[in-house]
Amino acid sequence: MMITRQLTDFTQVELLYNARLKKDFSRDERRPLAAIRRAWKKSAYECYGLFDGTEIMGYAFFVRRERDYLLDYLAVTEDHRDQGFGSLFLQHLAERLQGADCVVVEVENPDRVEDEETRSVRRRRLQFYLRNGYRKSALTSTVFGVDYLILEVPTAMEHTTEELRTVYTELYRETLPEPFFHTQFHTH
Fold it and tell me: CA-to-CA distance for 147 and 113, rounded, in angstroms?
């Protein structure tokens, strides 16, 4: 039986980061482990795993500020992809975060790339979230030169674009060092 469990020991997060995240995300997509550790110590970071017994099937890392969340990473292990586990995991996460005020997800903008293969991957990723109930907002961003569409998980609170911009900005302010926040984070 699949369960989603919050990781409560940073040693688990570190092992997962080194064993899985480094393989699943390119170097330029990865937040440094030291930055995750700093956010963890400030209670500004949460990590969850999708488990079948003791085997980890997927993981999700979130930046957290009070009752607002930004999905930082989501992945299903290679040998369990394309079997519905990603959708199941999103359902579990929605249940775990049902008391959240806002849950924000960034998806790389498929229209802001020249390469057709990359565009196709980005479109599939966007459709995955939309199929699983996430809403596309009018908000977009550029973070470290990457253009994102901003999605929101429906919660008990509906947000205007400006409210979503404020939440999203504060989530980045929580974990990005000031020089990077001012030079590498922009909303549109």
Answer: 9
- Tens-digit pLDDT profile for residues 101-128: 999 999 999 998 889 999 999 999 999 9
Q: Which of 176, 179, 178 is nearest to 35 (CA)?
A: 176
Phi first, then psi: give them for residue 76, nearest 5 degrees.
Answer: -110, 140
Q: Which residues pair with 148 in a beta bridge?
A: 108, 141
Of the ranges 54-58, 155-159, 165-169, which one carries the lowest mean pLDDT score?
Answer: 155-159
| 178 Cβ neighbours under 8 A, 6+ residues apart | none
CA angle in degrees (0–180, nearest 5) for 129-58-125: 25
Domains defined for the chain, CATH in brackets: 2-187 (3.40.630.30)
Whole-prediction pTM value? 0.92
